[in-house]
Write a structure and sequence with these properties.
The complex is a heterodimer of chains A (307) and B (290). Helix content of chain A is 80%, strand content 1%. Chain A contains 15 helices and two strands. In chain A, helix 3 runs antiparallel to helix 11, helix 3 crosses helix 12 and helix 4 runs parallel beside helix 6. Chain B contains eleven helices and two strands. Chain B has a two-stranded antiparallel sheet. Classes of the chains: A mainly alpha (307), B mainly alpha (290). At the A-B interface, helix 6, helix 12 and helix 14 of A face helix 4, helix 9 and helix 11 of B.
Chain lengths: 307, 290
């Protein structure tokens, strides 16, 4: 874990980043603020996925389901006239419930099998949302009334939330439970032989990750005033994985960096060329070939060598 | 609800030819997974590459058959290049390999869009196969029958290749156990490069043959990757024979699902996959992989 090796550099950088993150977009306002909020929402989901990928060794390609369930929960409940907070609560609970239901099947296998089963469940949710036009609006999505108050306030709240969640997740992986997860990630049969109940531990991590991703989905609905079935499509799951890997799968600051970088790069590149995917593909291939720990890991390593 | 027999027979043929396309796609993915232990999420992009390059080659050469012979090997070479230049470097790191193939897929899909535009294209079947054929008193489109025959022919060919040739023996050995295979003097790297070539060439062949059946549009790559994954998972990872039966199953469920329950056809396939995985996590014909 980079954080363990170079605590000073990491916390210094993180402090600087948080300060910059909190102040710059509010001053800049407008589109920058919009993108920064978008980045925070994705960061939350990426950090949640990072818990699974980096610390439990479970690679999910189905997090779009939780993201979308969160978004549709808020969207549908708000449209039905329910309080926004209740909607967010439902987003968290429903995403967690879906994870608790599908997790036992998904976590039966290992590695690639997990990847494909999570993918299959997510696509089931996608096709349901796509087909049930009477409920979800199908391809047209759900247009929502303006929610979330002033954009500056909503942004500030999302920064606080992301920082709090990252801090909590870091404590979690350092806790005995987190250490047990790490042992499972490194060698599941050995961990089991040591008396660690691997399956319930992994299921708990899966459900927690889903709950946070559902919350992020709910926030995305509030932020965009819109829910689209595309948020449930498997490309959204792949995007989240890319964010996690771009930043470095271990530690949660990397996921935030990856998500932020992704959102701003996408906006910047898309405004210049329509070939965003080409660009993203090249960045992805070069990042993976160039470094084991993602861009954030590379940065931290450079930094600590110099310090 | 009574559905007339000709319609059912027609849908049966449609489902079977669709199943054969799925098989071409899934056989390549399965071979690659078995030998290189790589889930190639760029597989659908190679399918799409075959479809669009096939279109260009037909226009250039003016002949479907010449294009059919030339395009798949060319795409196969691209697959070999991807294996040599990218995946080889990441040996033993499956997550990174998966994500590199995602990146390759993004790159290929956008390059295709740059070259051919984003418009939906429906491709007519080649003139020799565009007419109808009468069989047992019912009339079928000739092209669907051609695809069906091609799929079955390739299944037999791949089986013979795997069972009877030196390359096939090596592929089976590496699929079963790379370490033991290496200790027997089989070079896993070389086998894996060739297999990547064969697998992506099969995907490209599927794309070229499939173009008159499934219209070409951006996003097709992701859709085809997904279908190939489902077929492979149901059939058992690394099992070409499993892919064949599973492709038939998925093709039939999809075809008749559309006919009888058009609202939930897509859902049915995923439910089928979830069911198979719940009962037999290793797939229908698969052995459990460590």
């Amino acid at each position: 874990m980079p954080a363990r090796r170079v605590p000073a550099a990491t916390s210094w950088l993180a402090g600087l980043a948080v300060a910059g993150m909190a102040v710059v977009p509010v001053v800049a306002g407008g589109y920058t603020l919009y993108l920064a909020t978008e980045a925070m929402v994705w960061s939350l989901a990426a950090a949640a996925l990072g818990l699974l990928v980096g610390h439990a060794g479970v690679v999910s390609l189905g997090h779009a389901a939780f993201f979308g369930i969160g978004a549709y929960s808020v969207g549908l409940l708000v449209k039905a006239g329910v309080d926004l907070w209740v909607g967010l609560g439902a987003a968290v609970l429903l995403a967690a419930a879906f994870a608790a239901l599908t997790g036992p099947l998904a976590l039966r296998g290992h590695g690639v099998v997990v990847l494909m089963v999570t993918l299959a469940f997510a696509q089931m949710v996608y096709s349901a949302a796509y087909r049930w036009k009477w409920l979800t609006g199908g391809d047209d999505g759900l247009a929502l009334p303006k929610l979330g108050g002033r954009p500056e306030l909503f942004y500030a709240a999302s920064v606080v939330l992301v920082v709090a969640c990252v801090a909590a997740l870091r404590r979690l992986v350092a806790s005995p439970y987190g250490q047990a997860l790490e042992a499972i990630r490194q060698n599941e049969s050995k961990a089991r032989a040591l008396g660690i109940p691997a399956f319930p531990y992994k299921l708990a991590a899966y459900t927690l990750s889903a709950a946070l991703t559902g919350l992020a989905g709910g926030l995305l609905a509030i932020h965009r005033n819109f829910v689209s079935p595309h948020d449930l499509y498997w490309v959204t799951s792949a995007t989240l994985l890319v964010m996690v890997l771009l930043g470095g799968s271990r530690g949660f600051v990397g996921a935030v960096v990856g998500a932020t970088l992704y959102v701003f790069l996408q906006a910047w590149v898309s405004s210049r060329t329509e070939f965003w995917s080409l660009f993203l593909g090249l960045v992805l291939v070069l990042t993976i070939l160039g470094s084991r720990e993602g861009l954030w890991g590379l940065l931290v390593r450079r930094w600590s060598r110099r310090a | 609800m009574a559905i007339p027999l000709p319609l059912v027979m027609m849908q049966l043929l449609n489902s079977l030819s669709y199943a054969m396309l799925l098989f071409l796609l899934a056989a390549g993915l399965s071979l690659i997974f078995g030998v290189a232990r790589v889930v190639n999420l760029a597989h659908g992009a190679f399918y799409m590459m075959g479809a669009y390059l096939g279109l260009a080659a037909q226009r250039l050469l003016g002949d479907f058959w010449a294009a059919l012979v030339l395009v798949p090997p060319a795409v196969g070479l691209a697959g070999v290049a991807a294996e040599r230049l990218l995946l080889r470097q990441l040996h033993g790191r499956p997550l990174e390999q998966v994500l590199v193939t995602v990146g390759v897929g993004f790159i290929l899909a956008d390059l295709i869009r740059a070259g051919f535009g984003a418009a939906v294209r429906s491709v007519p079947p080649p003139p020799a196969l565009s007419g109808p054929v009468e069989l047992f008193g019912l009339i079928y489109p000739a092209y669907q029958l051609f695809v069906l025959a091609l799929g079955v022919g390739l299944f037999v060919a791949v089986r013979v290749l795997l069972m009877r040739t030196a390359w096939g023996v090596r592929v089976r050995a590496v699929t079963a156990d790379p370490q033991v295979a290496a200790s027997l003097g089989i070079h896993p790297g070389r086998v894996s490069a060739v297999t990547f070539g064969v697998g992506t060439a099969l995907a490209a062949l599927g794309g070229m043959v499939g173009a008159p059946i499934i219209a070409l549009a951006p996003g097709l790559d992701a859709q085809m990757t997904l279908l190939a994954l489902i077929v492979v998972v149901i059939g058992g990872l690394g099992q070409v024979e499993g892919s064949f039966w599973s492709a038939l199953l998925v093709g039939l469920v999809d075809g008749f699902g559309r006919l009888f329950f058009s609202q939930v056809a897509l859902f049915l396939i995923f439910a089928l996959m979830a069911l198979v995985l719940a009962l037999r996590p290793q797939g229908l014909l698969g052995r459990s992989l460590s």
